[in-house]
């Protein structure tokens, strides 16, 4: 039973990390695409609305980024630490697949 609890705990953390990473990438893409749309429109009302949306995306990015940092899922300023986290995640996934 302890092994099952250990595996389930690890799986939950991996899932949180994968979801967080996916959200972060999606929001980054939204920021880029919204900024491009702002530059492409000549309609002032649409441009104003897109600027508001851009600020929303930036705030979402900040919240997700903070969550990832707080939970030890993301270390953009220390590549060695980020590589360590990625290796640990890979080892956990390999262990889950063996059982």
Describe this structure in words.
- This protein is an all-alpha fold and 99 residues long.
- 87% of the residues lie in helices and 0% in strands.
- The chain has helices at residues 2-40, 44-70, 79-98.
- Helix 1 runs antiparallel to helix 2.
- It is elongated and about 55 Å long.
Largest sheet: none
**Gross morphology:** elongated
Number of DSSP helical runs? 3
- SSE run: HHH
Helix content: over 70%
Kindly report how far apart the N and C termini lie.
Answer: 13 Å
List the defining traits of the structure above:
99 residues, 3 helices, 87% helix, elongated, Spore_coat_CotF-like, Spore coat protein, sporulation, Ferritin-like
SSE topology sketch:
Blueprint: H1 2-40, H2 44-70, H3 79-98
Helix pairs in contact: 1-2, 1-3
Give a quick summary of the entry:
It is found in: Spore coat. It is built from three helices and no strands. The protein has 99 residues and is mainly alpha-helical.
